[in-house]
Every structure is written in C-alpha cells, then in structure tokens.
C-alpha cells in the first residue's frame, strides 16, 4: 500500500510539472510538444479548443482501443495519469502571458516536461498516447517500438508548421531534445553506474582487495586469451562513478599491466546494490 501512495504522489507531481510546462511556458510562446498533449496544443492553436479537454478525449479514446496491450498495473496507473494531466492543463490554461523569450521558454519547458515524464515513467505508468499507439503497432505489425514513438512525435511536431511557423517549430524541437535528456536523467538518476572488466593474471587478488577495501561484490570469470593462447581470469565489478578512481588505484597497485575496460550501464538491480545504504560503497 505504501508503494501505491508513493507512486500516486510521483504521478501527481509529474503530471503537474508536465502540465505547467505546457500551459505556462510552451503555449504562451506558441510552442508545442510531442505526443497527444502536443497534438492537443496544435489543435488549440488552430481552433481555440481547450488543450486539457482535447488531451483527455484523445487519450481516453486511445486507452479504450489499446488497453489490452498494457500490463494490468501499467493500465491502472495510466488510468490515474491521464485525468491528472488533463485536469492540471485545463486548470492552468491562460494563466500567464508570454515571457518574450521563446528560446528560454523552449529550454525550460523541456526541463519540466522531461522531469514530469520521468517521474511518471518511474512508477511504471504511461501517458496513454503515442507510446500506447507504438506498442499496438509493435504487437500487430512488428514495428520497432522506439522508432515508432520517435516518428509519431516528429509527425505531430511537423504538423504544427502551418499554425506555428518554422521558427517556433524549431524551438519545439529544442524542447523535445531537452525533455528527452531530462527524462533520462530522472529515470537513470544522478549516479550512473560503471561496469569494469579487468583481465589480469592476478584477478583473484584484485577481487579480494576490492572486496576488502571497497566492500562491494566482485565476480571472477575464467577466460582464455585468443592472442597468447593462455588461460586467464577476468574480474567484473559494477561501481558508481565516484568509486572509479579508487578502483583504478587498487588495480594498478596489484597489476600495472592489467587490461581494464570501463563502460556505462543503464540500470543495476540486486546484488550489492540492494544492500543497506550503510553497507554500500563503504571505503575502508
């Protein structure tokens, strides 16, 4: 139950951030966004219809048609998300005038749209718009999910050329770019993980030292060197970016000739990352 209220709170904050970005920053400066709310904004420019009401109607139609393509939990949370976004948009329409600086408005609209979307997506919910259409196309036609969403959003933005003009359309593309980066930041966090592979004849010693001094889990794999035709070991560890320098020092102190590969990972679950915070990353 506590998880549900936490998710509900995140959805409400996310929806409020998303809606305010549109009604206080995008719409007064004749900008829009991708997805169904963006289409509703373009319709608002063309016919003067309420973007909040249009968003609710269009998204509800899409949800009714495609509800069976969503998992039960995502469907339930999406049913909460759609009215919240529509209500907050409707409640804050026509509240402010243009800031007079469309570029600044485009950038900050992207920040708040991305932050709101990230909070919503972190709960497992959707906005029930282009993402659901893309999922339907993927299941029925085999279309790539990410590319379909991208194409749909681009088509929506380009459709606004007639009513917004080319300059504001370009500003909107800036909004989409910033929003994508902000969404990734909220979903992935400010502490990205690094995966480190260490190929060394002294891999077990490196592993023991890392476990002792950094208090993190390490895996040692048996390997085979294709060039030297010799058996070798590889140590594999996942750390946060702040632990990287300490790990490098440990490796070089044991084997200066170790072959080290460092790369980003998008998400980490379980293992030492599920330990109590007082145990994680404790450097002795």
- Count of strand segments: 4
Q: What is the domain tally?
A: 2
Summed up, the helix count is 10
Overall pLDDT, averaged?
Answer: 86
Pick out the low-confidence regions.
275-284
Instruction: Give the CA-based shape.
Output: elongated
Spatial separation of the terminal alpha carbons:
38 Å
User: Largest beta sheet, briefly?
Assistant: 4 strands, antiparallel
Q: Structural class per helix/strand content? A: alpha+beta
Measured on Cα atoms, how large is the radius of gyration? 24 Å
Portion of residues in beta strands equals 5-15%
Spatial sequence of strands, sheet with the most strands: 2-3-1-4
- What is the helix fraction of residues, given as a range? 55-70%
Which helices and strands occur, and which strands form pairs?
Elements: H1 2-26, H2 35-47, H3 51-66, H4 72-91, H5 102-122, H6 130-141, H7 145-159, H8 161-188, E1 193-200, H9 203-214, E2 219-225, E3 230-240, H10 244-254, E4 259-265
Antiparallel strand pairs: 1-3, 1-4, 2-3
Structure described in brief:
With 284 residues, the protein is of the alpha+beta class. It has 2 domains: 2-188, no CATH class; 193-274, 2-Layer Sandwich (Alpha-Beta Plaits), CATH 3.30.70. 61% of the residues lie in helices and 12% in strands.
């Amino acid at each position: 139950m506590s998880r549900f209220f936490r998710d509900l709170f995140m959805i409400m904050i996310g929806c409020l951030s998303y809606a305010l970005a549109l009604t206080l920053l995008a719409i007064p400066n004749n900008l829009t966004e991708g997805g169904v709310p963006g289409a509703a904004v373009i319709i608002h420019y063309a016919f003067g219809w309420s973007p909040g009401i249009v968003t609710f109607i269009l998204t509800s139609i899409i949800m009714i048609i495609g509800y069976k393509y969503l998992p039960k939990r995502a469907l339930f949370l999406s049913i909460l998300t759609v009215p919240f976004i529509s209500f907050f948009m409707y409640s804050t329409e026509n509240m402010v005038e243009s800031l007079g600086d469309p570029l600044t408005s485009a950038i900050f609209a992207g920040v708040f749209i991305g932050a709101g979307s990230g909070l919503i997506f972190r709960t497992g919910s959707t906005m029930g718009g282009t993402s659901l259409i893309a999922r339907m196309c993927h299941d029925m036609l085999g279309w790539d999910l990410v590319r379909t969403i991208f194409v749909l959003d681009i088509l929506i933005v380009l459709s606004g050329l007639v009513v917004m003009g080319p300059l504001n359309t370009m500003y909107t593309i800036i909004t989409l770019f910033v929003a994508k980066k902000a969404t990734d930041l909220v979903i992935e966090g400010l502490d990205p993980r690094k995966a480190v592979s260490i190929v060394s004849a002294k891999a077990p010693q490196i592993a023991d030292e890392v476990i002792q001094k950094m208090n993190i889990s390490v895996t040692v794999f048996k390997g085979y060197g294709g060039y030297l035709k010799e058996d070798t070991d590889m140590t594999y560890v996942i750390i946060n970016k702040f632990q990287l320098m300490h790990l490098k020092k440990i490796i070089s102190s044991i084997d200066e000739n170790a072959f080290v590969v460092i790369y980003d990972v998008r998400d980490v679950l379980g293992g030492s990352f599920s330990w109590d915070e007082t145990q994680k990353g404790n450097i002795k």
